[in-house]
Amino acid sequence: MMAESAAMPVRATKRGSERTPLSGERDVLICGASFAGLAIARELAGSGADVLIVDRYEIGERQTSACGIPTEWLERLGLMEAECQRFDTLVMHTPHGTSRYRLPWTFSTFDYRELCQLLWRDCDATFETAKVNGRAAPANGDGEIAVETDRGTITAPLVVDALGWRRVLANGDGYQPPDAPLSRGLEVHPGGESEDLAIWIDRKYVPAGYGWSFPAHDELRIGVGSFDPRFHVKDTTVELTHDLGKEPNEYQGNWIPHELRRATEGGVFFAGDSAGHCLPLSAEGIRTALYFGMGLGQELRGVVEGRQTRAQAESNYASFHDSHEWKFKWMLRVQKLVPRVPPRILAPLIRLLGNKRFVDWSFTHYLRIAPPEYAGSRWATRSADDEDRPGQQQDDAEDALGRERDLVQAEQA
Ligand SMILES: Cc1cc2nc3c(=O)[nH]c(=O)nc-3n(C[C@H](O)[C@H](O)[C@H](O)COP(=O)(O)OP(=O)(O)OC[C@H]3O[C@@H](n4cnc5c(N)ncnc54)[C@H](O)[C@@H]3O)c2cc1C
Which of 66, 119, 145, 297 has the most beta carbons within 10 angstroms of its beta carbon? Predict the structure, then answer.
């Protein structure tokens, strides 16, 4: 009865007297324990650093998406136990017809709680539930950054904002919907089964954006995303759900950034949605959060192991981030173009673009924006013994990983 257990949010977050004061100094403070934050903490495992990760909810408590990702990312990261369902075809519905794209790689849905637990299993950080309010008084010249939470102020020389689109630790460049480059997404999770990973490009549901149904074993994740933050997606999410013969339940929505933001600012590092790492057009932000999170984790590891300074880590990470900018800009151009295509041309166009050569070419390039090879193979090949020794994989495979990453980074540049 997976759908039912997923349907019942477990309130694990600390309340009342459990919320003891939290303060002191750490080597690394990671704010946000979802995809980006956990990927960073995992890269730091075994480094000997005192790493604290905080989130307002317990790890895995609040699902933040439809949880779809290219399967190879799950494989490479040793996260296959969290996989729910796998697809080799994308079904595209328009008002004038349906096309089936046979993908050159497979896509999987996964269980959020399970995936977060698997990532956390490999970390040796400390975790605390706390709400991050922002930066505390400016650093006093010793390089420490102070972060204010509802349980006290924590300081660290290395601080990461992996808190999502709000970018809580930025120096006042936080932007507010609906005037910001944000899309909005909402979904529901009725029970049911389907073989089709499907999207709807249909103005009946959203003038600029798409609807989706991502099956995940015994539930369907049905939702609507609008590139225009002013368009409210609740009514049409309900409409699409009814059109699929289901009753909406468990609403879950959020703003989704569709423009890159600065990777570092005021000494703080940003990864995942806080850095705008969600891809425009597809609104796919999980693998990119993992990808940039891993890249940042390696840079921070270099600092805590004394191989580089914080300033060098800032510079390297910013260059890595910037080297992807043109690809994000291209995706944004297409995002802006699609709603302008007249509906009657859309169906034949989608059919035309569905020829195998074009699908292989475009989807292969799309995957290469954050390629699975970047993760190397160390997590996928870990042995049972390694599970008791977080960070062992880094020691064993760092050279091989370095070579693979050099190749990927050269390609991005
Ligand atoms: C409806 C919907 C469906 C989506 N489906 C997909 C999909 O199928 N595939 C895909 O790739 N992408 C999808 N996305 C996009 C994806 O969810 C994000 O890009 C991704 O979650 C970004 O990961 P992150 O770790 O940066 O941030 P998040 O996953 O948003 O995590 C941020 C974390 O910070 C915590 N937090 C926030 N504020 C505070 C605070 N003040 N104090 C303490 N903790 C805080 C939150 O509790 C959370 O754990 C979807 C988005 C939406 C809205």
Answer: 297
